[in-house]
From TrEMBL:
Catalytic EC class: hydrolase
Coiled-coil portions: none
Its EC number(s): 3.2.1.26
Single GO MF descriptor: beta-fructofuranosidase activity
Gene3D superfamilies: Exo-inulinase, domain 1, Glycosyl hydrolase domain, family 43
Keyword terms, alphabetized: Glycosidase, Hydrolase, Signal
Family, similarity comment: Belongs to the glycosyl hydrolase 32 family.
Taxonomic classification: Eukaryota, Metazoa, Ecdysozoa, Nematoda, Chromadorea
The protein, known as: beta-fructofuranosidase
Organism: Acrobeloides nanus
Domain Glycosyl hydrolase family 32 N-terminal: 35-336
SMART domains registered for this protein in UniProt: Glyco_32 (SM00640)
Domain Glycosyl hydrolase family 32 C-terminal, chain residue ranges per copy: 361-438
Amino acid sequence: MFRRSLILLIGFWIGSKFFSEAINVTNSRYRQNYHIIAPTGWLNDPNGLSYFNGNYHVFFQYDPTSSNGGGPKQWGHVTSTDLVNWKYTQPTIALAPDQSYDVGGVWTGSAVNNNGELTAIYTGLHNNTGEQLVNIATSTDGVTFTKYSGNPVVPTQPIDGTNQFRDPKVWKYNGVWYMVVGNQSKKNHGRTVLYQSDDLRQWTYLGPLADEPDNRVGSMWECPNFFYINGKHVLFMGTDVERDGDHFANQGLNVYFIGDFNYETKVFSHAVDFYELDNGHDFYAAQMFQDPKNRTILFAWMNSFGTNFEEMQDGWAHTLTVPRQLRLSSDGSRVQMIPVDELTLLRGTEYINSPIEIEGHDLRLYYDKQTGKLVLERTKDVRQVDMGSIMQLNLRIFLDQSSIEVFANDGNVTMSSRYYKDPIPTITLFAEYGVANVEFQAFRLNNIW
């Protein structure tokens, strides 16, 4: 069977060690060929993205015992030397919930290289109180971790916040460690709070980095990321935002602010407007890191809480996106995402003027010149985004066994969605009510698993 592992380049000129009972994968029909997936069971948020000891490290929320994510979360682990060919570490579970402060789950967090020691900073769910606590674990080889004897390093949420307190993201600036954590205020609006430390073990609360008291950006901010890029600071997070026409259509989505952060005053001054990071059906819990080439690289979980994930009946669930490089638009007003250059290493057979068949169902991607919108339609569930006034549309499309990722006009717009097979359609390029000049390339992409 031809497994859909394909990239399309189109230009339009427009006129375990904790759990012993892992479940088995019973059907591989939707298993991804070149995306990160769990060996079995459930996967969600990317965690601990880092480069250490010559390897890229991607950890992920993992439950090998079920495909519905019902068990306590652990950190699964894959590594790569090139961001393309990934291998499961042995053991695959890097962090398991085996202490009182995390027995309810080793939840989302980040990782940093601290003088030759890879330090994971993660959320633990306490077994007695149900509190969400910040803990750390360290590794000298990047595979085997030892939890800090003084955990939790942040034993309680801020006094002016609720117990919704999770997903620490850490970075270093001028010799000082900083950390943002997702939190909910006692007035039940989402916010990101800020900490600092000299040693990753003793943390001082500095107050809210950003919040929106009118609840227009949701009631809880998860998985915050804060970073400097192209002369600006960017804060993005996962949240729930009321739908506004074509915008904010998913039940869970990543949004971002762009602004300036003053390390002296600890004030983040940002624009009022906020934007979606991705405009498809399935994109959440994004995390970024800086790689040795000084690139800002992102992975996300392809999920939005509204999709019927058919692979769950097959003993596994979910996938991450391909790695993406972040940058700002030329005017500094938008975050752009493009596939990392290394993904060209996946290319195999090139198709030139040949019919290409993929398995799919009711999936349509088209540009409507009259409205100026790029539309991704999945089983009559539409996501569309205004492309503005353009004369040329360039699309780079990644198709895998059960996902599509669209990068339009050099990352000005991205759309990520899961999809599942039914009858086998053909990929068709067509123009209605006019003429389009088209250049087309397609490559079969190699299977890394």
